[in-house]
From TrEMBL:
It comes from the Bacteria. GO terms for cellular component: plasma membrane. GO terms for molecular function: ATP binding; ATP hydrolysis activity; transmembrane transporter activity. SUPFAM superfamilies: P-loop containing nucleoside triphosphate hydrolases. Pfam families: ABC_tran. Residues 8-227 form the ABC transporter domain. Keywords: ATP-binding, Nucleotide-binding. InterPro entries: AAA+_ATPase (IPR003593), ABC_transporter-like_ATP-bd (IPR003439), ABC_transpr_LolD-like (IPR015854), P-loop_NTPase (IPR027417). Belongs to the ABC transporter superfamily. This is ABC transporter ATP-binding protein.
């Protein structure tokens, strides 16, 4: 794959939901391309389709029409197990609800994510130490999620999302529940991931966060437009 090719590409995405006779077009012909180094913010009012878009882009949901390609591999119309493998390999996913297993330490959560992504030496300590350092959690690696503060939890979740150095980091409202310092650190870390030739897509209501993006796209009634 050449450097100019998008890391993530969505073409003609449609997703419909039916309740009784009512039909909602949650996605309506969405086109999106994320190139290496790009930090893109998706904005849109509640119900505009952001969660549906992120789910379809990461293979958690299957669009009714259209195609998604990540790192040159088609993700759509694949068996669930294949989508899960591609998702673990190519995406880092940061959710508001968190992505930490409570029964594992921070270090073990990172190691698990690396193993799921097929990274060789998934539990090797040097890369995990470096990652903990990057999110200022070097001293908390052996602790369990329940003992972390809100800001530490957000940073640990980011470390897990970055564990396998994913081509595309997808974040849903990553700064909604964190203080200003943590927000700055999260945004700096996302920017550094882009600077390393990866791509970041963030769904947010925060104008502050969107200002840090290279490009803002807006969802309205399932359609995506550049701002
Ligand atoms: N499983 C579902 N069944 C029926 N309708 C759904 C389903 N999921 C989403 N929708 C509808 O699709 C539209 C888009 O929803 P979505 O959750 O993607 O919006 P959103 O922009 O993420 O909203 P919010 O910012 O409030 O999280 C809404 O009208 C929603 O009611």
């Amino acid at each position: 794959m050449s450097a100019a090719e998008p890391l993530l590409e969505a073409r003609g995405l449609y997703r419909f939901f039916h309740i009784g006779d009512d039909e909602t077009a949650a996605l309506h012909g969405v086109e999106l391309r994320l190139r290496p180094g790009e930090f893109v913010a998706v904005m849109g009012p509640s119900g505009s389709g952001k969660s549906t878009l992120l789910a379809c882009l990461t293979g958690l949901d299957e669009p009714d029409a259209g195609a998604v390609t990540v790192a040159g591999r088609r993700l759509t119309r694949r068996p669930e197990a294949e989508r899960a493998r591609l998702r673990a390999r190519h995406f880092g996913i940061l959710r508001q609800s968190g992505n930490l297993f409570p029964q594992l330490s921070v270090r073990q959560n990172i190691a698990l994510q690396r193993r799921l992504a097929g990274v060789r030496g998934g539990a090797a300590s040097a890369p995990i130490d470096a990652l903990l350092e990057r999110v200022a959690l070097a001293h908390r690696g052996d602790d369990y999620p329940a003992s972390l503060s809100g800001g530490e939890t957000a940073r640990a979740a980011l470390a897990v999302a970055l564990a396998a150095d994913p081509a595309v980091l997808i974040a849903d409202e990553p700064t909604a529940e964190v203080d200003r310092d943590t927000e700055d650190r999260l945004l700096d870390t996302l920017a550094a991931h882009c600077a390393a030739g990866r791509a970041v897509l963030v769904a947010t209501h925060s104008a502050e966060l969107a200002r840090r993006a290279d490009r803002i796209v807006r969802l309205r009634d399932g359609g995506l437009t550049d701002v």
